[in-house]
TrEMBL record:
Catalytically driven reaction(s): 2-C-methyl-D-erythritol 4-phosphate + CTP + H(+) = 4-CDP-2-C-methyl-D-erythritol + diphosphate
Origin species: Microbacter margulisiae
Site keyed Positions MEP for the nucleophilic attack: positions: R151, K205
Keywords of this entry: Isoprene biosynthesis, Nucleotidyltransferase, Transferase
Cytoplasm as UniProt keyword: no
HAMAP family: IspD (MF_00108)
Residue(s) at site: Transition state stabilizer: R15, K22
Function text: Catalyzes the formation of 4-diphosphocytidyl-2-C-methyl-D-erythritol from CTP and 2-C-methyl-D-erythritol 4-phosphate (MEP).
Name of the protein described by the UniProt record: 2-C-methyl-D-erythritol 4-phosphate cytidylyltransferase
Amino acid sequence: MKRFAIIVAGGKGVRMGTELPKQFLELDGMPVVMRSIEAFARFDAGMKIFVVLPQEHFNTWGKLCIKYHFKIPHQIVPGGDTRYDSVSHAVEMVQGEGLIAVHDGVRPLVSIDLIQRCFDVAEKMGSAVPASEIVESIRQRTNHGTKSVNRNDFFTVQTPQIFNSIVLKMAYRKAQPDNYTDDASLVDSFGIAVNIIEGERRNIKITNPVDLKVAEWILSLDKK
Ligand SMILES: Nc1ccn([C@@H]2O[C@H](COP(=O)(O)OP(=O)(O)OP(=O)(O)O)[C@@H](O)[C@H]2O)c(=O)n1
Ligand SMILES: C[C@](O)(CO)[C@H](O)COP(=O)(O)O
């Protein structure tokens, strides 16, 4: 089956608090989003890659590609106000049927093994979403405070999230923009089952400044 990757990097990175959005910050010698793109190109050099970027940073990206001699072929797509908008724009650029992997540009430590496992399962089952068991206790907000809940009933969810292109396009076209924080929630809002597979602890999302430090540390361990 044909494979496509949509790397979403159209956000502002408010929680990171840097002037330059976090996807462009350097992580061990290369901007965060370049590492994410590189992982997919290393998995399959022939796959079509769409990179969603904030329109106001198209120039920034051009300059970074020159500075870092970044040659991986990709098609740039303008981002939107929300992640939902950004993915919607890119999904409409996909031509032909196949599997679409939607990956956060700010998950630069995704492994080739995880990408491979996600595509393998999606090929057989139509979708694959990496998720991890919760390792801390969790509590839920209530009207009166909080209550403890059974962590075994929950998972944390990562990307890449892979779906058949027909299903993903239908979901993005028909869904009412809501508080969807990922692609799986949008797809399963149509009653379509989503297949969970084992995620990776190292596949962190760079959200706050400490995450960049953790990512640097993980990469330094990889070199040992
Ligand atoms: N309008 C948006 C918002 C988010 N994203 C992307 O979705 C991924 C996950 O989002 P998040 O970590 O929340 O990024 P930001 O929205 O940039 O962060 P913040 O909420 O702190 O502003 C990121 O790769 C981000 O660039 C996007 O493409 N378009
Ligand atoms: C898509 C995601 O990374 C899955 O965990 C997550 O939902 C993104 O959330 P954010 O609030 O946009 O960072």
